[in-house]
Amino acid sequence: MKFLASVAAVAAVASVASAQTLQISNPTTGVTWQVGGSGYISWSGNCANLGNASHSVDVQLMTGPATALRYVADLTTIDCSGNTTSTTVTVPSTLTPGNYSLQILTSPTDSYSAIFAIAGGASSTSAAPAPPAASTTKAPSGSAGSVVTAPLMAVAGCVALAVGQLLL
């Protein structure tokens, strides 16, 4: 009976962990947005666990290393309930060129993009890049991995606890 309860607990933690974050597929490493131009954001997964709040989730622009990100600006809100998987945003014209990432406030665990570049210049084009083809979309890297790691570590801990209970 303890085994069934442990397996149920592990399954519950695993389903909650996977439902709480988005996998941001664009922007990713190698992508460059232009100051004052448009930026394309795409993701997979959903945050339907937020209920009605999933229709208006904040997207923030961050800077700094993955271990010490700092808030720069609010970019937009997205619908991550599963109905929409991409959007285009206006890159603020007041930004300093550099490396940035996105933080999507998918409570209780936020979702992060990989670090990407924003270049400056008044002569920059403001056209939005075409959505990437499915075969060329890169999996999120950089700080995105840390978002997935914490829930997976929790699941691993529950599995270890369940195995320990079996051995008793």
Automatic annotation (TrEMBL):
PANTHER family associated with the record: GPI ANCHORED SERINE-THREONINE RICH PROTEIN (AFU_ORTHOLOGUE AFUA_1G03630), MATRIX PROTEIN, PUTATIVE (AFU_ORTHOLOGUE AFUA_8G05410)-RELATED
UniProt KW Signal keyword: yes
Protein name per UniProt: Yeast cell wall synthesis Kre9/Knh1-like N-terminal domain-containing protein
Signal peptide: 1-19
Domain Yeast cell wall synthesis Kre9/Knh1-like N-terminal: 26-117
Protein keywords: Signal
One Pfam family cited in the UniProt record for this chain: Kre9_KNH
Organism: Entomortierella parvispora
UniProt keyword Cell membrane present: no
